[in-house]
Design a protein that fits this description.
Length: about 350
């Protein structure tokens, strides 16, 4: 019996690898042989993502453009869409109930018990600047707390579309340097994994904010681009930015560790933006964590990290903050996030 052997050759796209087939031999009575190689389905080792979720082998079939393929092609690497952002948002814009929704307005977490996903959401698909988080497809002349200039972000600036061992498929080196890994089950722990194959209920459970517990390296990863936030500026007298990767009960800090541990009173509440002072407990790091349960253990030595205050994609509030600290009108929750640790 004849066999077509297909070899995949990699092409770099925004830090990730995209693949296209080269047919090396054709015989009669065709049979395609595919080996069961392990692959990352975004961030879950051993899961599977069909190649045709993102690629088409032929831009035309029977003389017509295949369904779900953008007009104007064929595109590089035989992608279904002309740009990286269009390709990712083809599934992740809320139109696919099985895929995590990263584009405002997000409703999939409404009944999950959490207010948003771990990364939050983008205000738009790249049509205009986003004051509530990272921009997509908009060139930033100056990057906050960074030596980088004239940067244009797309989804593959931070994520590898084919997968990595890292949390949420993030790239080890988004800025092109040595890099920082943030590996699942080592630096970040998860209670409920994504479903295989994906389903709406499994995606909601897997990607909601409370499904992750943090141990280390998440702030260092952010500092790959925002390099003036690296730990060497966590020194007494620094007033450039809030300290990160430091314990709440650190010596000399103006904090109230007992208030943080108690989880009641000023700053603590059940809902953000309900006109009652107090928001859900902010995220934290546990440097001694060994699993999900230990990573969620509240203690005086919990650590503040970038994700304590900010959402990676963005959210409802200025600067991607998880509470309305910078919003106009003095909302009831304006100081709630600060009060959880400081209780001034």
């Amino acid at each position: 019996m004849g066999i077509i052997k297909c070899f995949l050759k990699g092409v770099k796209l925004g830090g990730g690898m995209l693949f296209y087939p080269f047919i090396t031999g054709i015989f009669l009575n065709l049979v395609i042989v595919v080996s069961a190689m392990p692959a990352y389905y975004h961030d879950l080792p051993g899961n599977r993502q069909p190649c045709n979720d993102c690629h088409t082998l032929h831009y035309s079939e029977a003389g017509t453009r295949p369904a779900d393929v953008e007009p104007g092609g064929p595109f590089q690497q035989l992608l279904l869409r002309s740009t990286t952002n269009k390709l990712c948002l083809f599934c992740h814009d809320g139109s696919d109930p099985n895929a995590p929704d990263v584009l405002n307005i997000v409703t999939m977490y409404s009944s999950s018990g959490d207010e948003h996903s771990g990364a939050g959401f983008f205000d738009n698909s790249g049509s205009y600047p986003n004051p509530k988080g990272h921009d997509l497809g908009i060139t930033a002349a100056i990057v906050p707390f960074s030596s980088m200039v004239n940067v244009t972000l797309n989804c593959a600036s931070c994520h590898d579309p084919h997968g990595t061992p890292n949390y949420r498929n993030i790239l080890t080196s988004p800025a092109g340097g040595v890099g920082i890994s943030v590996e699942m089950a080592r630096d970040v722990f998860r209670d409920v994994p994504p479903g295989d194959p994906p389903s709406a209920s499994a995606s909601i459970a897997a990607y909601r904010e409370s499904n992750e517990g943090y141990k280390a390296n998440t702030s260092l990863w952010c500092a790959e681009c925002h390099d003036s936030l690296k730990p060497d500026v966590n020194i007494p007298g620094n007033r450039v930015h809030h300290f990160s990767d430091v314990q709440i009960n650190g010596a000399g800090y103006p904090t109230d560790p007992l208030h943080w541990v108690a989880g009641t009173g000023s700053g603590f509440g059940t809902t953000t933006g309900d006109a009652v002072e107090g928001v859900p407990r902010l995220r934290f790091q546990v440097s001694q964590a060994t699993d999900y349960i230990s990573s969620k253990q509240v203690g005086a030595d919990n650590e503040v990290m970038c994700a304590t205050c900010h959402l990676a994609h963005g959210g409802n509030y200025e600067k991607g903050l998880v509470w309305p600290y910078l919003e106009l009108g003095s909302p009831a929750d304006a100081n709630s996030g600060c009060q959880q640790c400081h209780n001034n």
